[in-house]
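tool_call: predict_structure(chain=1)
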Amino acid sequence: MGIMLGAKSTAKVEPQLRKTAFWTITLLLATTVMLSGIGQLMQLEGNLKLVTDLGYPIYVLTLLGLWKVLGSIALVIPGFPRLKEWVHAGIFFLMTGAALSHAFANDYGSYGFNVILPLGYAALNIASWALRPKSRKL
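tool_result:
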């Protein structure tokens, strides 16, 4: 009988653990994307240097910043599963594009930080997408 009780409690814990992992990862992703977007919209000094060093025009900061802020909001609001799919795709392309931009410009940073960080965010994005509950799927 003890085995049956253990199996029943394990079955209840797994969905809760998955839900907790989803929200932890999604909130971390949304927060980092939001803060990055705000920094780009404010055109803080580090963002200006980063964009000009890569050879992009300054107005790219406004575009990326606006998309990041709106995307991070879309990730956490209820409903809109199709919009969330687009946001996940956008974050993936944005972060892998950032990593490739740094790599192609030979701007790896200390220990490859400028390439590893956006790839880490892309991995968070994939984890958030993979753990999403049924209510957020198409």
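agent: The chain has one domain: 33-136. Proceeding to next step.
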